[in-house]
Fold:
Amino acid sequence: MLWACITLPHLALDGVLRRRPDDGPLVLVDGPAHARCIVAANASAQAAGLHIGQRLTTAQALLTQFETIPYDAAAAERWQRFLAGVAYRYSSQVALLPHAIVLEISRSQSLLGDWPKMERNLRSDLAALGFRHRIAAAPTPHAAHVLASVRDGQAVLTPETMRRALDPVPLQKAHLPEQATDALPRMGIRCLGQLLRMPRDGLQRRFGTPLLHAVDRLLGDMPAGLELYVPPDAVDWRIELSHEVENIAALVFPLKRMTGDLAAYLSGRDGGVQRFALRLEHRDRQATDVAVGMLAPERSADVLFEAARGRLEQVQLPAPVLSLRLIADDLPGFVPAGRDLFDERPANALPFEQLRERLRARLGDHAVYRWGSTIDPRPEHSQRIAAPDECFLEPRARPTWLLERPMPLHGVSRVLAGPERVETGWWDGGDMRRDYYIVETMHGQRAWAYCAPGERGGWMLHGWFA
Structure:
C-alpha cells in the first residue's frame, strides 16, 4: 500500500485569510484575557515584527494598527474536515490525524495516474483553495505523517527506503507518546534510528505498550488504527463578515469563495447539487433566505456562482448583513455533460446549461421556457409553452418558428425531405389533409411547407427552420 499525508501548518490562519480580499496585518490570538499571545500572523504582520508567541501588548507597542481575531479551534477542525472531503476525490480511504490528512493512493493510481501526477493535481487543488500545505508519501500513513512534518515533497515507495528515511528524524517530530518524547533525549536517544535499534523488552518495561504500538504502526507491523472519514450528505457553512454589509455587491467575494468551496467538495464526493439556500443573517437573529434552484444537478464553480449571484442581486436587504450561510441538504448524483469529439464551438463559448441558468437567475424562473408537444397532431395545435425542466423529445422534424397562419411561398429551389402526410382533425370539424415537405428557397433558407396531396407547386409556408 502507499499512503499520502497532507499536513496543514497554517490551517486556522489560512481559513481566515482566504475569505478576505485585503492583505493588511492580521494575527490570531489565544490565551487568557490578561495575557493573550499571538498564535498565527500573516505576512504583513510578520514584516512589521509580529511573531508567534509574542504577547499581544508587545505587538500593540510595535504596530499601532492591525486586526486581531481570536483563535477558533472548532473552525480549524471544520476546515480540516472540508479538505478531507476534497481529498476524497483522490481516494476512498481518507483519515484525519492531528493537523493532517492521510489518504491511501495505491488503488487510485490506475485511474488517476502515478504518484507524481496525483501530487501535482492535489497541490493544485489545495493552492486554488488557499491552503498552504506539505505533502509526503510512504507505505504507511503514520510514516507519511512523520516525513511530511520533516520535509515537503518526500516520497518513499518501499519499506526499505522508508526505514532509511525515518532513521534521522528527530523524536520531537516523530509523533510518539509525549512521555517517551520527553524522557528519551535524557537517555541519549534523539532520533528515530536510535530508538528503533533499542531492545523492545527494555522499552516496554520503561514506557509500556503505547510506545511499542506507536513504533509498530509507524513501520506497518500492526494495523494503523485509523477511523476512515466519510463525507456528509449535507452542507451547512457559515461566514462571519468582518463588518456589517449594507450592499449586495460587498457579498460577491465571500459568495464566490463559498460556491467555489462547494464545487470542490462536490467534486470530491462525486456528486452535484440542484437546490441550496443562502441565508443572510442580521442582528437579533433575523435572517433573509435566498433559494437557489437549478434545472439539473451541477457542480461547476462558475455555474453555482452565477446562479447564486443572480438570485442574490434581486434581494432588497431589510437590514445590514452580519454573516452569510450556505445550506444544501440534498446532494444528488452528478453525470457530466457529454461533448462531441469534434466540437466546433469557440473555446470561450458559454455552455448551454450555464447560459440557461444565468438567464433564469437574472430574468426569473418564468422568463425562460421551451416548446413542448401536445397530443393533437395538427401543426397549429401541436406545440405549447412548457416548463424548462420538462422533458420533451419531438421525433419528427419540426420548424423552430411555426407561423400562426400558413402563407403562400414562392421561390422554392429544391425539396430536401418529404412528403409527410398529415390527415386529421375530423373529430371537431377542423379536418385537414396535407403533404408537408422540407424545402430550400432560392435564398438558401429552409422552410416547412405543404401543398395539396399528390401535387407539387402552390406551396403554403407553415414555418422556418433555424
Summary: The longest strand covers residues 412-424. Residues 379-464 form one domain. The first helix runs from residue 11 to 17. The chain has a mean pLDDT of 85.
